Amino acid sequence: MRASASPTSAEKIAAVENEIKVMAEMHARMMKVCSAKCIDQSYREGELTKGESVCLDRCASKFFEAHQTISEQLQKEGAARGFGGN
Fold it and tell me: What assembly does the database describe for this protein (predicted)?
């Protein structure tokens, strides 16, 4: 990206597309990890049990919180090194 000029429309679109890709990948990883951790693989019931629902809710919350913390730290380190940013 250019150092002094504002980003072009194509650059803005690419940035949004990249963010969507990152969020989709995070969601897929979260679903895989939390499902393996929280859902009984014997599938005895058609619906989630209360315990499974609570576990999934907590797992997703912790996963997202960790993702946010890591993203913020990476942005700070990138800014400190002089890489673009917001």
Answer: Heterohexamer.
Nearest-5° Cα angle at 15, 24 to 27: 10
For 34, other C-beta atoms within 10 Å of its C-beta total 20
Q: Which domain holds residue 59?
A: 50-80
In a domain, 54, yes or no: yes
Q: Looking at the 3D structure of the chain, how many domains does it have?
A: 1
Lowest mean pLDDT among 4-8, 22-26, 28-32: 4-8
**Could you give the angle at the alpha carbon of 46 between the alpha carbons of 43 and 48, nearest 5°?**
80
pLDDT band at 78 (very low <50, low <70, confident <90, very high): confident
In a domain, 43, yes or no: no
- Residue 35 located in a structural domain: no
